[in-house]
């Protein structure tokens, strides 16, 4: 087994990975959100292997929350990796005592992963594409065209429930840790994450595609 990317810097827990996938569902996400990206993962930890470096990842897929490795499922997939900037890290007021002695960034990373894993019993939102198209259909035509042309978030509502998709997992985990990436009323999509490299996130790997 070879490393996923020879030129990729070492990743850290809570880093956000975007992937470019093929298939009907991925194609619809890319089309409606005007983005090259269609799927989102969270880095859980580094897996030290004598032969190569791999990463444990957390993702929401159609069978629910899944734990796997980057090399296993995304070895030949085009990816980009984003990391929250130091000056954008916020920590919620209540932090488990076991995290208090950690540096601020590590505290945040632990909180993000803790919150993501809390959603282990959540169901996958199989109707997300329906919600997207419904939001598109009810949007004013000028507002819709403006969003599509400028890559702005569509007016897709985000609802806190026990159904979650890949980018929503990241959205809720970051928000619960104390650093929201988007207004809580809007659903975060993979393309939105790529565009946050101008404000909240630093792109540490991959081409700067939206």
Mean pLDDT over the full residue set: 86
Q: Which structural class fits the helix and strand makeup? A: alpha+beta
Radius of gyration: 17 Å
| Percentage of residues assigned to helices | 25-40%
Order of helices and strands: EHEEEHEHEHHEHHE
Label the CATH architecture.
Answer: Alpha-Beta Complex
Number of DSSP strand runs? 8
Beta-strand fraction estimate = 15-25%
The outline comes out as globular
The fold-level CATH name is endopeptidase fold (from Nostoc punctiforme)
Main-sheet strand order equals: 4-3-2-1-5-8
**Low-confidence runs (pLDDT<50, min 5 residues)?**
none
What is the distance, rounded to the nearest whole angstrom, between the alpha carbons of the first and last residues?
Answer: 30 Å
Count the domains. Answer: 1
The CATH superfamily title: endopeptidase domain like (from Nostoc punctiforme)
Number of helices: 7
Give the biggest beta sheet: 6 strands, antiparallel
What CATH first level would be assigned?
A: Alpha Beta
Report what the structure shows.
With 210 residues, the chain is α+β, with helices and mostly antiparallel strands. It has a single domain, classed as endopeptidase domain like (from Nostoc punctiforme) (endopeptidase fold (from Nostoc punctiforme), Alpha-Beta Complex). It has seven helices and eight strands. The chain has a six-stranded antiparallel sheet with strand order 4-3-2-1-5-8. It has a two-stranded parallel ribbon with strand order 6-7. A hairpin with a 4-residue loop joins strand 2 and strand 3. Helix 1 runs parallel beside helix 4. The longest helix has 15 residues.
């Amino acid at each position: 087994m070879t490393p996923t990317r020879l030129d990729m810097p070492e990743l850290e827990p809570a880093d956000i990975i975007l992937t470019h996938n093929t298939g009907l569902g991925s194609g619809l996400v890319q089309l409606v959100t005007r983005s090259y990206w269609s799927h989102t993962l969270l880095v859980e930890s580094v897996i030290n292997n004598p032969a190569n470096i791999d990463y444990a990842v957390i993702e929401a897929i159609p069978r629910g929350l899944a734990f796997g490795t980057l090399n296993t499922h995304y070895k030949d997939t085009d990816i980009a990796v984003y990391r929250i900037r130091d000056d954008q890290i916020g920590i919620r007021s209540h932090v488990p005592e076991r995290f208090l002695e950690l540096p601020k960034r590590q505290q945040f990373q632990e909180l993000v992963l803790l919150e993501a894993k809390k959603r282990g019993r959540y169901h996958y939102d199989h109707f997300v594409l329906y919600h997207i198209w419904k939001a598109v259909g009810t949007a004013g035509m000028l507002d819709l065209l403006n969003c599509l042309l400028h890559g702005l978030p569509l007016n897709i509502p985000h609802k806190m429930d026990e159904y979650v998709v890949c980018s929503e997992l990241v959205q809720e985990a970051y928000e619960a840790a104390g650093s929201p990436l988007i207004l809580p009323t809007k659903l975060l999509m993979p393309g939105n994450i790529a565009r946050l490299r101008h404000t909240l996130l630093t792109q540490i790997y991959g081409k700067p595609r939206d």
